[in-house]
Design goal:
Blueprint lengths: L7 E4 L5 H7 L4 E4 L15 H16 L1
Parallel strand pairs: 1-2
Length: 63
């Protein structure tokens, strides 16, 4: 990794976490467990608003 460079890898679920750790790729890891692929979500001006609205979308889509 070049001097002064830090990497943050955002993984799309727990299934990828162990494989990624074993890969030896440098950087910090975050697992995103949000179901962003389900239902329609209205556009949001920022990530905080999006994350506030997402549970309502999942409830309305999945019941």
């Amino acid at each position: 990794m070049p001097l002064g460079m830090n990497y943050l890898h955002v993984l799309n679920g727990d299934a990828t976490l162990e494989v990624f750790r074993k890969s030896g790729i440098p950087g910090d890891l975050v697992v995103c467990r949000e179901m962003m692929c389900e239902g329609r979500v209205a556009p949001a001006p920022d990530i905080d608003t999006f994350l506030q609205n997402a549970p309502h979308t999942c409830t309305n889509t999945l019941g």
